[in-house]
Amino acid sequence: MALSAVSSASAPDNPSVSREATPRPVLFDNHDRPLEYLRLAVTDRCNLRCFYCMPEEGIKYLPKQELLTYEEMLRLTGLLAGLGVRKVRLTGGEPFVRRDLVPFMARLSELPGIEELSLTTNGVLTAPHVPELARLGVRTVNLSLDTLDRARFAAITRRDELPRVLDTLYALLEAGIRVKINAVVMDGQNIEDLLPLAELTRELPVEVRFIEEMPFNGGSHEATPATLPWNHHRIREHLALNLGELLPVPSHPGDTASHYTVAGHQGRLGIIAAYSRTFCGTCNRLRLTAEGGLKTCLYDQGVLDLRAMLRTGASDDDLIAALSHAFRHRAANGFEAESQRPLHQLNFESMSTIGG
């Protein structure tokens, strides 16, 4: 099946944003994978300098006029919702660095067809906005947190902001918003932090997800998926050895994490094979960068310049035709997408420009 609409989708059991329950079209790529989840980067700017994401001096940020406006984002998201996208996650950079983010989220939540609205944040600026997020119906927030040790946090992020991030964590939980903690596992950097982070699930209803390190931004490692020092197999073995048996939780199509529970723990653990790319077969994600580039895979170089189309007068029909063509030519997996890049170079691209 190349590209088709099937009227068989219905609203999820626990949508973050209440939406219509009538059947909606489902968009499929050329590998029969549904495309229903948009990761929307609202900025390339960030207030941290995590060494695995960008260099200490930061990156050369895009001039403001080269970023998509909120109006342009709303137009593109509305078109994608009409094609079958039902879930939107706001990313960056750090989303809260961009002004008027919450009013923009409110407008996104009103788009017909958008059933779930969530975001990924580093938590530094987030706590004051938590009540507004709760009022919008946001039920899930991904919080980037690689360590609970203040000195290591400062070393990894090059900023001493751990107390503010923890304030956000507890504010989200108090507001009843589900929290997924994302921790990148880095050999020689935060291995001693894996167990303290995992132990958060003992007393708190959080999901702690450990992510394989990826080779973006200067190549923090030269490993292949087979030689990565801390791949998903080793992460699981380490956790099981120290916490006891990890009980698998059934996964759903589109899940990037393998989920586990531990006896006596309120929360659960997740392991994301981001560099091994074991989940590509059911990937349902699209990425829209802050400058308007469409990425149908995290590892591709970008397959469509939507900003250029918007600003040269493209009609909705023009945009839909271009999107449909991109979806019909989507890479089968991250390895194929990477192989199509010039020189297969990943390590000159900052994660803050991709949208995570």
TrEMBL record:
Its cofactor is [4Fe-4S] cluster. S-adenosyl-L-methionine binds at Y52, G93, S144, M214. SUPFAM superfamilies: Radical SAM enzymes. GO terms for biological process: Mo-molybdopterin cofactor biosynthetic process. Binds 2 [4Fe-4S] clusters. Binds 1 [4Fe-4S] cluster coordinated with 3 cysteines and an exchangeable S-adenosyl-L-methionine and 1 [4Fe-4S] cluster coordinated with 3 cysteines and the GTP-derived substrate. Keywords: 4Fe-4S, GTP-binding, Iron, Iron-sulfur, Lyase, Metal-binding, Molybdenum cofactor biosynthesis, Nucleotide-binding, S-adenosyl-L-methionine. Residues 1-25 are annotated as: Disordered. Pathway: Cofactor biosynthesis; molybdopterin biosynthesis. Gene3D superfamilies: Aldolase class I (3.20.20.70). Residues 1-19 have a biased composition (Polar residues). It comes from the Bacteria. The keyword Nucleus does not apply. [4Fe-4S] cluster 1 binds at C46, C50, C53. It is an enzyme of class 4 (lyase). GTP binds at R39, R89, T120, K180, R285, L286, R287. Monomer and homodimer. NCBIfam families: moaA. Catalyzes the cyclization of GTP to (8S)-3',8-cyclo-7,8-dihydroguanosine 5'-triphosphate. This is GTP 3',8-cyclase.
